Every structure is written in structure tokens, then in C-alpha cells.
Amino acid sequence: MNKIVLTIEGKRYEVSAFNHPGEGIRGIDLLDYRNKDVTEEFDSYHMTNEPWELLEAAREKGEHKGIVHLHQDDDVDNASSK
Q1: Which among 81, 68, 2 has a CA at the least distance from the CA of 35?
Q2: How far is the C-alpha of 46 from the C-alpha of 13, rounded, in Å?
Q3: Which value, in Å, is the radius of gyration of the alpha carbons in the chain?
Q4: pLDDT band at 81; cut points 50, 70, 90
Q5: What is residue 71's predicted lDDT score, i.e. its pLDDT?
Q6: What is the secondary structure of the chain as a DSSP string?
Q7: 59/11 Cα distance (integer angstroms)
Q8: pLDDT tens-digit profile of 11-68?
Q9: Which of 1-5, 62-66, 73-77 has the highest mean pLDDT?
Q10: What is the Cα–Cα distance from 72 to 1, expressed in whole angstroms?
Q11: Contacts of 4 (CB under 8 A, 6+ apart)
Q12: How many alpha carbons fall within 13 Å on the CB side of residue 49?
């Protein structure tokens, strides 16, 4: 399986297991954004604080609702096993 790692505000997240609840995701394949900085896109698509709160929870817990916060030294291939 291709891991989907996104960078948002300088922080890396593995989101392959995340089930996106939003309507705006239709027609968007997150694989197209794999291994890219998506800060600008993330900010423009999300109009509430909830997405930012999900990222914050992932940073605090290591994983939250399928979002895994990766540290600089994390091996992407082993990220979902945390």
C-alpha cells in the first residue's frame, strides 16, 4: 500500500488510514499530494477549526482517527505500525 505522507505547517502526517468526512474531498485523490507540503491547500479547503484540532490531537497522542504524526526521524514505511 502506498503511504500518504503530507506536510502541513512543517509537520509530517501519515494519513493513509484517515477516513475524510468532508464533502469537499470529492474529486480529490490524496495520493496526488503524497510527500508534498500541502499547507496552502489544507488551509484553503478547511473553513473550521476542526481539521486543525485533529492534527493537534495527532501531535499530542501520536495517532488520532487515522492521522499519524511523524517525527523527523520516523521511517515512513513503519509509521502506521505505531
Answers
A1: 2
A2: 17
A3: 12
A4: very low
A5: 86
A6: ----EEEETTEEEE-TT-----GGGTT--GGGGTTEE-HHHHHHH--SSHHHHHHHHHHHHSEETTEEEEPTT--GGGGGG-
A7: 9
A8: 999 999 998 877 667 777 888 999 999 999 999 988 899 999 999 999 999 999 999 9
A9: 62-66
A10: 22
A11: 14, 15, 16, 30, 31, 33, 34
A12: 3
Instruction: Check if the beta carbon of residue 23 is closer than 8 Å to that of residue 29.
Output: no
Cell of 7: 506536510
User: Look-up: residue for cell 484540532?
Assistant: 53
Do 80 and 68 meet the contact criterion of CB atoms below 8 Å apart? yes
- Does 82 or 2 have the greater pLDDT score? 2
The set of cell numbers assigned to 41 is 491547500
